[in-house]
């Protein structure tokens, strides 16, 4: 057996981007299989380890299309682990509204809604997938992501970390009006800071603009918050690493996700980079106009 064979299990809601995710892994040298019955995973691992062509990176899409076979997934993963193989579970999620829109645009039927409404199929699928989601290593909400953005995030989270092992810190700025990121490990609310939205010349800008950054960071409470936040993260990182965590998602939220959260996320990222940490940043809602129509 090749002990360094790595498995990525791609799963999640139908319509959330599993096919695109599989293509990304395929483009980066993974041996990919779509809709493999879970009971065959251990046998498939054996075949890969015995193949003449060395296969050490494998991505599998496992979902409810397998019907009753899907119920054996946890049992198969437990067997896989006992055989000495490592795996990570990537769970792709999206809001009901977005999933319904995607199905209507594609004119395809939801696999659990062949004789019922789409929303009923989505609700049933969520219920069946809840235990798997709770045990996933990475959860990506694709509701507001373009295909290019989803591809970029997968590359950052999986492909780049193959070259640079260690804890990857992903800082996400977001707007509470648009929902908390599903994959966040730590969530911090910066709505207590003075809001640039109410400064006419700053409202059209974002936290990436120097004028907004200077406004947000000039207040004593901003600096004190960053100091305390950095101290907390420094305290937590060694313990996350000790527990085997490879990725830490820190979400920084304000009302619309355009001004304060972006500025604070950028500042935090720079401070962590100076300490030698590998940091990537994602301003989820910076360009989403829904969050900035009205701010309290």
Automatic annotation (TrEMBL):
Q: Give the molecular function GO annotations.
A: ATP binding; GTP binding
Describe the location of the RapZ-like N-terminal domain by residue ranges.
5-159
What keyword terms does UniProt attach to this protein?
Answer: ATP-binding, GTP-binding, Nucleotide-binding
Where is ATP annotated to bind?
12-19
Q: Which SUPFAM superfamilies does this chain map to? A: P-loop containing nucleoside triphosphate hydrolases
Tell me the domain of life: Bacteria
Which annotated residues bind GTP?
Answer: 63-66
Q: Where is the RapZ C-terminal domain?
A: 168-285
Protein known as: Uncharacterized protein
Naturally occurring in which organism (per UniProt): Thermosediminibacter oceani (strain ATCC BAA-1034 / DSM 16646 / JW/IW-1228P)
């Amino acid at each position: 057996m090749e002990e360094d064979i790595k498995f990525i299990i791609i799963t999640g809601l139908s319509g959330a981007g599993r096919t695109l995710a599989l293509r990304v892994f395929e483009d980066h040298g993974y041996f990919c299989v779509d809709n493999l019955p879970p009971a065959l995973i251990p046998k498939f691992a054996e075949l890969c380890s015995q193949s003449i062509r060395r296969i050490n990176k494998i991505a599998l899409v496992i979902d409810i299309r397998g019907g009753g076979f899907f119920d054996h997934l946890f049992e198969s993963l437990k067997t896989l682990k006992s055989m000495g193989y490592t795996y990570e579970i990537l769970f792709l999620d999206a809001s009901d509204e977005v999933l319904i829109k995607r199905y209507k645009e594609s004119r395809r039927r939801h696999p659990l809604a062949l004789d019922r409404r789409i929303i009923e199929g989505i609700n049933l699928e969520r219920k069946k997938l809840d235990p798997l989601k709770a045990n996933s290593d990475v959860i990506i909400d694709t509701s507001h992501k373009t295909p290019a953005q989803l591809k970029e995030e997968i590359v950052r989270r999986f492909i780049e970390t193959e070259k640079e092992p260690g804890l990857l810190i992903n800082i996400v700025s977001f707007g509470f009006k648009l929902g908390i990121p599903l994959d966040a490990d730590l969530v911090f609310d910066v709505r207590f800071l003075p809001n640039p939205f109410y400064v006419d010349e700053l409202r059209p800008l974002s936290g990436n603009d120097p004028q907004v950054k200077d406004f947000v960071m000039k207040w004593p409470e901003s600096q004190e918050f960053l100091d305390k936040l950095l101290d907390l993260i420094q305290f937590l990182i060694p313990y996350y690493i000790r527990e085997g965590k490879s990725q830490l998602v820190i979400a920084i939220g304000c009302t619309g996700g355009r001004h304060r959260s972006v500025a604070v996320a950028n500042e935090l990222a720079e401070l962590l980079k100076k300490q030698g940490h590998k940091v990537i940043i994602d301003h989820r809602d910076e360009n989403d106009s829904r969050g900035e129509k009205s701010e309290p």
